[in-house]
Structures are given as structure tokens and as C-alpha cells.
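hey can u check if this looks right to u? its 233 residues, i copy pasted from the old doc so theres a chance i mangled smth
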Amino acid sequence: MPDGLILIDKPAGPTSHDVVDLIRRRFRIPKVGHGGSLDPQATGLLIIMVNRGTKISNLFLGSDKEYEGTMRLGLTTNSYDLDGEVTATAPWEHVTRERLEEGMAQFQGDLMQVPPMVSAIKRAGVPLYKLARQGETVERESRFVHLYEFSLRSFVPPDAVVRIRCTKGTYVRSLCHDLGQVLGCGAALAQLRRTGSGRFRVDDSLPLDAALALPPPEFAARIIPLAQALPNA
């Protein structure tokens, strides 16, 4: 296999590590990595690094990201998405499209964001999601992120489809949760799809099942060489 990267459209279910492992075993590639993980239930663009491509993974981990997500009003969960335990419910009928867009506008630009408890961030070497499973809640340090865009694509109450363009490390789940608090009804992330990472787009990616079904020579032909993969290439 040549050195470089391949764009994969991850389905809901497997972790990013699962995708890496499936590709490594299917094509017997010694070194495989990814350029920015997605939650198991999230779909969309996953940049897979192959062989020496793994050495430049940090260039893609730090790139700007684009997402489309569905936010559900009227409930709050401990994970900030619908996979978690519902901790509160509230009426959402007072939220109009105009009120929703006003609330979203407050989050554009520079932002200090608190990561969710159900995340891979470590505290004393232990991932927060493991502490959350044990019923623990700990203080999390706010992180600086920047939202270039937080726009409303459609609104069919209680669900709102949104588009986000942001810097690395932005938690869309936290964004939905915080917006729900501003609106006074709570909100949780229902669906998330990554549509872009740096200059790469999900429209140019290959569904995971289709990638795994390719003969090795055809898979190799889909790998973007390092000279073309670099951000400034």
C-alpha cells in the first residue's frame, strides 16, 4: 500500500478506532491511523492515514471542521445527546425560528466551551466517560474554540437541523446543550454528520462498507499520496 490517506464515510455504530482496525486487518497494512475521531453514533468524514501518512496525522487533527447536526429541543441529558440519560424535560413550544436563530447568534465567534462529562478527555489518567459511567461528575476546564458559522438549515419543532463550521476540539453536543439552556427548554444532539475536515469533503469519501469490499489494488488506487495530502499542497 502506498503512503498517504484515504477518505472514509463512517457509518453510525463503529468507533473511529474500529474503522482503523477493520482497514488494517482487511488490507494487512502495518500502520493505520485517523485524522480526528468521531463519536460512535456520528457519521461522515473520517480521514484514514496509511503507512507513513500516520506521521502527519497532527496536521489533520488540528484542521477546521464542518458538521451538520440535528438538535432536539425540550430535554437535557447527561451526555448532551440522545444516547444519554434524560435529566430534565421542559416545554419547547415557545421557541420560534426567530428566537432560535437569535440564540444561535450568541455562540458565533470566540467561545469558551465546557466539554461534556461523556468525553474522552482524561482526568488523572482516566477518561471522563468512564467516570460518568460510575455516576461521577467532575469539574471540567473550559476550552477556547471558534465558531465561524452556526446556522439553521431547517426547523420542524422540536427538531432543528444546524450547520457548524468550527475550529478543532469543538464539541457540538456541548453547543446544543448550552443553546438549550439559553432558550430555557433544554436541548440535546440527536444526529451528527461531519461534512468537512480542512480542505477535504465527505462528498469525496468512500462509504466504509464499499472501501472494505474493494480488492487491494483498487483500495490502493484510492489513497491520496502524501505530496497531494499535505494541507498546503
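The first helix runs from residue 16 to 27.
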